[in-house]
Fold:
Amino acid sequence: MPDLTLQTHEGDGLPPATSADALSLTIEPLLDRHAPRPRRLSVTVIVAADFAAAVDEAYRVGGHDFGPFGAARLGGDVNGKTVPISADHASARVIIDANWWTRQSTADAQRAGLLAHELFHPRLDRLRVEAGSAEHLARTVHTPADGARWSVRNAVDELRCDLAADSVLKQMFTVQTPRGILPLPLGLLGSEDDNNYLGATLDAFDHLHDEWSSLLGQTLTGEQQSLVARQTGSLLTLLAHAEAEARSLDAPGAFAIPGIAEHPVGTLLHSTWQQICDAYDEYAGWQTVAASDTAIADAGQEAVLNLWRHFGF
Ligand SMILES: [Zn+2]
Structure:
């Protein structure tokens, strides 16, 4: 990684003490360049000292029974969470972990990146409702096909939100590089503290390698199938973040990183991920988001079921 200094140019960028509300007001119009603004959407941003409790409260107010919320994920803790508050997705809460937020005081690009990502989730959800899409309303998971579909939808949404965040960062910040001053890409946000998703994906591959090796080709119990299904979902989400980081840096994708492509778990996932990305690229855009959602989920579901056939289910 080249030596980089993050700069916010005089007159743009942000004053250090910018509140989450003020930052959200700056970011929303920048998201308009990435996707249309829904006709009706109201989002409340909450920076919460007790992150988990605030998410649980939003679940309660929104009538969801997902709880209790935990921030831990394969690949690290999450610092933000978006919860729909009304069934029509016209109202949502974005909750940010105050412990994380206050640690970012000297690097507002981190805050802007997280907020842009989280603010794009409710926009995406509401755009779907306004387009008449029912794809994301199906929440029950009974069969492996349901589980595969759910994981693909989740992962593609993370990719979309990350690419939206990349677009916002590039509009707000610049970075000094050996090639001169460039718009700040998402992929450089975590580079100073090595806290990026490309690295986290490799760590997760290492973490699951032995377990997956021992399960491949075996007859799995129902419990083992559920475990592999959940782990696949987590890996697809990580790959989505890594994909966005790679694309933000003008690399072709996550598998252009040799460490990911050559890892045994990466080898197993490569064609699955490629098929999901191909579908995403083919159906990018917002004019026909309902049809796109279904087409991406159809292709992704097949790709994940094919992966699971290696595990015998
Ligand atoms: Zn997200």
Notes: The first strand starts at residue 5 and ends at 7.
